[in-house]
Amino acid sequence: MKATAKAHTNIALIKYWGKRDESLILPMNNSLSLTLDGFYTTTTVEFRDNLKADQFYLNDKPITGPEYTRVTKFMDLIRGYAEKPSIYAVIQSINHVPTAAGFASSASGFAALAAAATRALEMDLSNQALSRITRQGSGSACRSILGGFVEWEQGEKEDGSDSYAVQVAPPDHWDIRVAAVVLSSKMKKVSSRKGMKRTVETSPFYSSWVDSIPHDLKQIKEAIHVRDFETVGRIAEANCLRMHATTLGANPPFTYWHDTTMAVMQTVKDMRDKGIPAYFTIDAGPNVKVIYLPENEAEVEKTLRTIPGVTDVRLSRSGQGVTYL
Ligand code: DP6
Question: Model pTM?
Answer without folding.
Answer: 0.97
